[in-house]
Fold these 3 entries.
Entry 1:
Amino acid sequence: MSTAALDLPAGAERAGRAENASLRPVLAPESVVVIGASRRKGTAGRAILDNIAAGGYVGRVYVVNRRARQIRGERCLTSVLDLPEPADLAVIAVPAAAVLDVAEQCGQRGVRALVVITSGLDVAACADLLAVCRRHGMRLVGPDCFGVAVPGIGLDATFAASRLRPGTAGLVMQSGGLGFALMDQLSRLGVGISSFASVGDKLDVSGNDLLMWWEHDGVTKVAVLYIESFGNPRKFARTARRVGAAIPVLTSYAGRADREALFEQTGVITTSGFGELIEATALLATQPVPAGRTVAIVSNVGSAGRLAADACTDRGLTVYRPHGPTRRRLRTLTRGPNPVGSGPVDTGTTVSEQNYRQCLELLAADDEVDAIIAVVLPTGATGDLVSAIVHADVRIPLAAVVLNQPESVRLLPGRQSRIPAYSYPEAAAGALARAAGYGAWRAQPRGQLPDLPDINPEQARTLVREFLRQPPAGGWLPPPAAADLLHCYGITPGDPADGTGVIVRVTADHVFGPLLVLGIGGTESARLIPLTNADADLLIQSVRPVPRRPGGGGPAAELRDLLLRVSRLADDLPEVTDVGLDLADSDGTVVTNARIKLELLRAQDPFLGKLR
């Protein structure tokens, strides 16, 4: 079977560039108009105008308020139609009943994008708002959102209460309030914000759009998603995989372990809460990605070093045990009762700044060490151990734990880069474990999408269309029709009496889109569609017992071929919402029973089809 690299087709690349260009009026506007800003402080529109002024926005600003002559020294226009130029971005903070008229006027004046702060629009009004945007070719953020911000150009079109610091973290939020809190925390840390969008009801701009923007903006080094859903599920899985290969993508998603495993397949780093999200972002925004899972621990408090070691082990990290020349040199620098015994290096409470720094540098130079956790408790009898961390020449990931610091996490200056310092060992271990997991995902071979020259997708689409034309326009295919559809992808049904307990299913997930599930002997595992050859092998290996060819050997090549064909079928035909296949023999060459369900695709706005 020949293969093709897992890259975007040329058409998809062009579409991606077009989508990014369409976001420029939102995230790189040269002119902004605030519609609904009030003379009265304490309102969303006035706060947005105040923040734009305070941020030092470098572009042109206009204000529309038909009841005021000027606000904050800015002359007010009575209508959007009075704008001296078509503004790139309009921020709308007017009563819900007025939103559609204002949006229509924006379209007529040539405004290129809208951010609709207003809440309370019903389903019909949302549909009408989207229709206005489609008719005039405007991008739409919201409605019911908290605004957008790009601190690097001084744009803060939100009603946040504090100033934002320019930086390298891209944020997209559905819950604007938590978004403001996260922006505050990352600004306080010094990580800062590259761009922020509160997408609200996500009628148009979604997390997918922001991920593609950050992939190419040249500023963002870490992407943070704090949203309940991710827009087009099929597109999210593909986009996250591609973007994650370039920059870390993090989200907070407390849920089932199987859902976390699916996130891991896309490379998205999951945390179970707000605090862990900040802690992991602080490390990934400042430190290199670990090359492996082996962590050295240095502590001037033996019990704290052991806590750090336990936390690392609990999170799947390996604690380094010094040996050979490293162990011998460490013994000359440490004073603890068991300085280089079971793993953590106990320097002794009264270690000097110089000796502590040399311990870190020794371990960093050891090829077996992938990362370091430096635990310190400053006392009157020690040197400045925080300074030792700051000045150590460490070129691998380094996380500090300063046991008496009041902040849960802060950033220290460092010789190579800023260093995250946590107040307790478990936080440092958790952040490093997530970074190491991401590094392992990034190092995995991506594999290739199969080139299947013997399939007939056009005939399959014709079969699907003919079935869906018949009432009740969807449902389970009759067995002969299911066999015909499988035949289009080179999959052959056999005698139902020959089943072996091996099943292959396709099921839909509301976050990730279609999943391919392999079950053997009651054990199931799932992978995201489309599968590469590497994905298919990993899926087979994750299920035990693995079918083997007579005489032994690895996973059957025929089973891998079947999985890739089913994946292609589900990827080509979005109308296929459920597939269940029973296999005849142990190597997966023949299907004995097939259940395939088709559903009409939900009518989707053609404008959204281009934007999402």
Entry 2:
Amino acid sequence: MEHAPLSPSPAFIPWTMKGVTLRYLLIFAVAFFGKFLFASGFGFYEDDYLQILPIYPFNLGDALHRAWFDLRTWTHGEPVGFAISELHAYFVTRFDTLLVGFLLGLILVSVNGCLFYRLARRFFPDFPAFVAACVFVLYPADTSEQIIMNQPWQLLNLTFVLLAFLFYRKNITISYGLALCSLLTYEHFFFPFAAAPFFLNRGERFSFKRCISHAFFVVIAPACMILTRDFLGEPRAREVTASPSEVFSKVPSSIGLGLSNSVQTFFARMWDAIAHGGSFSWGIIILTGLCIVLVFRRKEASIPENEPEHSWQNLLIIAGGAAFAAAAGYVLAFRPDNYPPILNLGRLSGWNAPASIGVCILLGCAITAIWRLSSVGREIMAWVSAGAVGTLVAAGVYIQRIDYVASWDQQRSFLQQLFATSNTWSPDTVLVIDLDNSDRKSMSTPGFPLYWLTIDLPDAVPQLMHIVAFQEFTKDHHACPMAIGYMRGMKSVAEPGGVRLEMDNHAPIHIKDGYFQMFQIHHGRLVRVSDPVWSIAGVQLHPQSPEARRQWGVPLSKAGMILLRGNHLWPSVDNGLMYPTTPSYSRAFGNLPEE
């Protein structure tokens, strides 16, 4: 009996993986480097304070109760979305780190990229399908995928839609069920599914009968949803039913503006990575491009094409369907809060995500067309496409650094400084941040301006303090201390003993004479304002004395500890020795100060 020779290339080494597995691994790597490379420096952004932060004290029963309530009452007409968001927020707040939430985001982005690759493989050769999947993962007009609260509304919703496309020709019942889940989660992602009949499998002919039955479903399902929401009094549905002519007049411009914004951003980010990225970006571009080209040149990693290619006619039908899906992604952008759809940074850039399915399939059609023309064109397209993916990875890394990491550094530093003054707080204290006379740039990044101080901050401060401190402040019917970023133009109304600030997204904030502290922000530092009088709404208010009322500051809640505590050294480093330092670092200098 002869002994089998040892394999020089074990199967678990990524370089030796074959076929689809290696493609999936590459898509995961693209998602990691392009979206989550600096996840350890990420934090909370905008609506995270409203949807994630309040869930930290919940138990499982609380989360299930709220999810059931959302399903029964059709909260904001999105029952599935709100129910999933309650359970999602409960899950990510069970851990003592935000990294679990970002790991979940990485998994969802990667899974969506792999699902899109599987969908694209039905239409295109392997390499164009892979490039289209990478662009889908890195879609430059959408920079919101790292935000934790976006995961159920956007990332999981994309999963629903992609699965609906994949099941469309296998099991229509499951496909339509998934599409309805998308519609009841966040309706914007449902409409690209209207293009499903145009996405032909290889060797399949276009069916008008299938297209008509599908159109019936696509029209009836949203119509029933709108009428139900209108019956329940949901204001956005009322806007549609009250003035349909205004709605339909804005839809064409919404589509045109949205698509032009996506395409322009795509080329602008690639050019910026090349022209302004510097050596770091060039290194990312070269390494990414080489990895993709070398992997696809390996015969062991090739995937045989067992099915015939699409005819030019079918490829044109798929391209038409892709353009229709891309346009459908902006059908609902007529709403005042979303019009015009020209954002490409921050949380609201997620509005571009539904159209990414159609845009990236259309890109796959273009690459496939050039791929077929000649072997020279194929070679050039391979290198250009690989380099383009590299530029988008470099652009994603840049966005992570200047938006997500920088913004969280600003926010955490501000909140730490704010809580450093908590030994001067008393019941009913309002901490007013004078934004008109502050250095706004030091509290803003391109995608996350300082408006979170006016919208999210009032709810954040009470939830970051320990429940015992909260109860102590609010006993005898007093209000818990809170903070608000104030700008001229905010509606203020005089009332006995003070002023009331009317808020669009928060209950009115009552500022009492002698019960407020005024601050400004300069070069990232919180500076107390010592002016004896503040004139607002025709009333002159006197600030609270900054004298300490207790020896220690307000203790933090679990959420406060997770979000605001400083970075700590590893024990082996903190207790290590370095000549001539004795004793160890921690004993010589004490604990590191909070950042």
Entry 3:
Amino acid sequence: MSEPIKIDVWSDIACPWCYIGKRKFEAGAELAGVPVEVEYHSFELSPDTPVDFEGSHESFLSDRKGIPVDQARMMLERVTGIAETVDLHYDYAAVKHTNTVKAHELIHYAKTHGRQLEMKERLLKAYFVNGEHVGRIEDLADIAAELGFDRADVVRALSTDEYLPAVRADQAQAIEYGIQGVPFFVIDGKYGVSGAQDATVFAQALTQVAAEKAAV
């Protein structure tokens, strides 16, 4: 099979299961041994979060879910342990909780330069592993410059909301598809896989689609 299978993924930057799901999908694609073409789409889990959020991640989770702080801490410890199983080293003590809309705009900016996947990976690592701020334009521009993008042009694009319509279009499409949680994977435009499933689940889905395409 030479033609890659298109994979559309809705996810957020501030989504621990999205990073875990990314790794599990990558492992599944490798298991299946079929070529894939991945495109990421914007989804904001918490669009009302301020850019400069004050407080711990535990307190945010506690307030959002209406649970005790100790329970929120246990949830974070659990997801951190699961992340370790796919070689991701989350550092919630360093996480800077923030609004992610500008990060999504930056991913669209990178997409126009053919480097969306690289930017997506870098921003997830920035948030969960490095403790970098991914909500402020200046910080995002620094990250982009580190990857070799024109810093001044990134600041211009983010300051003028150049890619905000693209973010909103992704979100509108998610609503149309009935997507209410992320990560959500759409395989070949017709099969949906919700959540950070095991690599074998993704491998089976990809193998099935590859067989269907080969039979046409």
